[in-house]
What we know:
Elements: E1 3-7, H1 12-23, E2 27-34, H2 39-56, E3 59-64, H3 66-82, H4 89-108, E4 113-115, E5 121-125, E6 130-134, E7 158-159, H5 168-177, H6 199-203, E8 212-216, E9 221-225, E10 248-253, E11 258-262, E12 268-279, E13 289-294, E14 302-308, E15 314-323, E16 330-335, E17 338-348
Parallel strand pairs: 1-2, 1-4, 2-3, 4-7, 8-11
Antiparallel strand pairs: 5-6, 8-9, 10-11, 12-15, 12-17, 13-14, 13-16, 14-15, 16-17
Helix pairs in contact: 1-2, 1-5, 3-4
Amino acid sequence: MEKVLIGMSGGVDSSVSALLLKEKGYEVIGATMLLTDDKEKNDKIVEDARNVCKQIGISFYVFDFREEFRKNVICNFINCYKCAKTPNPCVECNKYMKFGKFAEKAEELGCKYISTGHYAKVEYSTKYSQYVLKRASAQEKDQTYFLYAIPKQIIEKLIFPLENIEEKKDVRKIAEEKGLKIARKPDSQEICFIPNDDYANYLTKEITPQKGKIVLTDGTILGEHKGLIYYTVGQRKGLGISYVEPLYVIRLDKENNNVIVGTEKELYSTTLYAEELNFLLNIDLSKPIEVMAKVRYRAKLAEATLYPQVEGKVKVEFKNPQRAITPGQSVVFYIENILLGGGKISSNV
């Protein structure tokens, strides 16, 4: 019987995933990662996960990864805002924690496979002669966007039991049919380490905001901003200025401490540059590649061409303009439904 270590968040997705793995005949070990110092929240997560593991009859561990999480995820998050960028901490968490430190624990426990409640598919591709990550059947829930930065060599060790689930309600139905007490537990929508989803309150404990100017793209000064950490590209609300037409944040100018604003039309761009790249397919990356790409999780896939640049960067040219391309966020690439890889947006043009 092959052993698999599954990450248990105390939610319905990971709980049903653990159940499905056991029903397929695996020796399943559940484990919860402690990532933050919120004791009340941690205790609730551990309690829910432990109860599910007990209910379905699998062993359970708790891994304290708080120090590593602080170093690799929280510090990155704060540094991005210091650089006037908008980070995506879930990408870093998957890279360093769920498919990094967690994978190390799986090896220590003698587990051949690692599993989570992510909506994604793993298949062997004869075309590429390797295991690949593909978009999940539930396209609206697909989470491959957040998985592009994981180590390529770990893909063959991954099992995603929810890969063929069509809708979230189907997962809850399985949980109810099997009598899992967490069947109706709400999904978590916030970033796990930010209390009450209050970014500003959290960041001001680490960064002292500096007031500056709000200016149009032509340099016209319209008002004063509270500090760059309060703004992101595409933002309309909370600017505190009046104008003849709606204005949006176009760019954050860290060098001059300015918030650059403009019309919605000015939000659109066909070109971006990306860095900190990770590619998951064995293909020639020295020449232009036609791909489908998205510049944020909820964005639609769009036709684009990758042009490799010097120093490990790529230029991405979209066939059609994309809205609010945001430095710090991830641009992720697909060939058909296969995840090619991605990187962090360094600038838009």
